């Protein structure tokens, strides 16, 4: 009995570590000093309207009724491939936003610990949601809800960071220019 509880606890810790620190992308880490601000802003999440359009129920019904079965299967496989690419893109966006958050924190010492904890909590939520969507896609689900949640997390954090950056720029434009390499 004790061995199984210890095994479950170890497994839970390993899963939590994977969720927290397992990067959803293959993007390599680089120095914050070498990054330009444009490269830190999310770019993939702006394609969410196209993704939701691609997942319309009417299209699926049309393909089911009009296309041959093998064509429908290929069409579904292609949609799943596109969703997986979009999901990877969201992972890249989140890595960028995390880097931007670290940069903003370094430039703005007045950011309270509570804000940093909030960003960490959002990071945990993102990683858990990311893995859940990844699993659902692996099992054939083509639902946009999980992707919408991930996109919302990224855009919300990015908007907050852009606001913080504008405050930093207003208070000390020369410091921002030097640190961003402009």
Briefly characterize the structure.
This protein is mainly alpha-helical. It has helices at 2-21, 37-40, 48-54, 57-66, 69-107, 113-138, 145-171, 173-180.
Structure description:
The protein has 182 residues and is an all-alpha fold. It has one domain. 77% of the residues lie in helices and 0% in strands. It is built from eight helices and no strands. It has helices at residues 2-21, 37-40, 48-54, 57-66, 69-107, 113-138, 145-171, 173-180. It is flat, with a radius of gyration of 20 Å. Mean pLDDT is 75; it is low at 25-35 and 178-182.
Structural key phrases:
mainly alpha
What are the SSEs and their pairings?
Elements: H1 2-21, H2 37-40, H3 48-54, H4 57-66, H5 69-107, H6 113-138, H7 145-171, H8 173-180
Mean pLDDT metric: 75
Helix content: over 70%
User: How many individual β-strands?
Assistant: 0
Sheet having the most strands: none
**Overall structural domain count:** 1
Kindly report how far apart the N and C termini lie. Answer: 61 Å
Radius of gyration: 20 Å
Low-confidence runs of at least 5 consecutive residues: 25-35, 178-182
